[in-house]
Amino acid sequence: MHSLTARRLLLLVSGGIAAYKAPDVVRRLRDAGAEVRVVMTPAATRFVTPLTLQAVSGQDVRVALFDSAAEAAMGHIELARWCDALVVAPASADFIARLRAGLADDLASAVCLASAAPLLIAPAMNQQMWQHPATRENLDVLVARGATVCGPASGSQACGETGPGRMVESEAIVAAAAALFAPGTLAGLRVVVTAGPTREALDPVRYISNHSSGKMGYAVAAAARAAGAEVTLISGPTRLAAPAGVTLVGVESANDMLAAVNDALAACDIFIATAAVADYRPASASENKIKRDGATRTLELVPNPDILANVAARDDAPFTVGFAAETNDVEAYARAKLERKRIDMIAANHVGGELGFDSDDNELTVLWNNGRAPLARASKPALARQLIELVATRYRASRGTGGSA
Ligand code: CTP
């Protein structure tokens, strides 16, 4: 039995020099047991011929959307339904942008839009194109929607430059395709994540809040979902869309968030608090808009509940993970928070520099009783995936179901 036995994979080949490796990808996917059909973009046919891919796949290769004979044999919607997974290799910067935008004016992108199957993307492009914020943002959006990204590798490029952008080797694509069908590390578990800022009302039109963008929390929710968990995301106001497959509960204030968390905690296995909860709220919110009268005003603030500490103190507490945003003595303060709030794990990050609330990258030091793991600077989705793997390992260790310290 091979890792992809009886899996039906649709390989989408987009235009780039790495398309010459597509026949090898097909061969290796078939060696692993998969049935493979190939769709190429018109640009891809300039780098590798449809005939070559037809020979290695043993199937007709399709390129055109409006090909009536091919559509009669297996229409693009049927093709989209036929496959168990979509593998884009190589994925050019242009094709990634098309996927992000949901375009459907060529066969390859139309099939992707019409399919609910999992999507694996193996990017290949010039290193500058790879590092461009547009490409980074496009991929982040696709990952938030549930796509898996494999690579790219670093090295010398066809264009003569050196850097990240080479398509990973065929073996890595086969392994990533097989992983799409493996049960995730959090399969069968329920995860509740808090995210974003809270807003504490002063009157009907004014509030106290903070700069939290919610990006890290949404990435954590998406990563937990990708690892197979059932995820509820309880979020203060952000500009972000709910990650695919995640239940989003929108809240405003810390008290709202606490109430929503309490509602969601039944049968929760893992609680991850990424929200930047306002520590204080106005002692009273005016029912009507406060009018300007020129007088000096004093604002009385009262403490908000500590949602994370509340959850950790419950008799039926789930495995609890907190975040600590610190400007100085990051690790010492974070470890003190781990102990004070009696939580199982804490992810500490340094804020106040270029990384933090609204940045796309982050770096974390994850701490638990007797252990630590530094996670180097990376995009928030990439860090979230690493964090979720650590959480899964520690969760299993804490429940005595395997894992290492
Ligand atoms: N947290 C929470 N409820 C609060 C405050 C914080 O659930 N009222 C959670 C955050 O989501 C985060 C962790 O507690 O996971 C730590 O938040 P942080 O603001 O760094 O810590 P505080 O306890 O507020 O401590 P301080 O502001 O003094 O650093």
List the SSEs and their pairings.
Elements: E1 8-13, H1 22-31, E2 35-40, H2 50-57, H3 68-73, H4 76-82, E3 85-91, H5 93-101, H6 107-114, E4 119-123, H7 127-131, H8 133-144, E5 148-149, E6 153-156, E7 162-166, H9 170-181, E8 190-195, E9 200-203, E10 206-208, H10 215-226, E11 230-235, E12 247-250, H11 254-264, E13 270-273, E14 280-282, E15 301-303, H12 307-312, E16 319-326, H13 330-340, E17 345-350, E18 361-368, E19 371-379, H14 380-398
Parallel strand pairs: 1-2, 1-3, 3-4, 4-5, 8-11, 8-13, 11-12, 13-16, 16-17
Antiparallel strand pairs: 6-7, 9-10, 14-15, 17-18, 18-19
Helix pairs in contact: 1-2, 1-9, 4-6, 5-8, 10-14
Distance between the termini: 33 Å
* C-alpha-based Rg, rounded: 24 Å
Give the tally of structural domains. Answer: 2
What is the helix content? 25-40%
The CATH class name of the largest domain reads Alpha Beta
Q: Count every helix, treating DSSP H or I runs of 4 or more residues as helices.
A: 14
Q: From the 3D coordinates, which CATH architecture of the largest domain would you assign?
A: 3-Layer(aba) Sandwich
- The CATH superfamily of the largest domain is known as CoaB-like
* Uncertain parts: none
Number of strands: 19
What is the approximate shape?
elongated
Largest sheet features: 8 strands, mixed
Quick gist of this model?
The chain is of the alpha/beta class and 405 residues long. The chain has helices spanning 22-31, 50-57, 68-73, 76-82, 93-101, 107-114, 127-131, 133-144, 170-181, 215-226, 254-264, 307-312, 330-340, 380-398, and strands spanning 8-13, 35-40, 85-91, 119-123, 148-149, 153-156, 162-166, 190-195, 200-203, 206-208, 230-235, 247-250, 270-273, 280-282, 301-303, 319-326, 345-350, 361-368, 371-379. 34% of the residues lie in helices and 24% in strands.
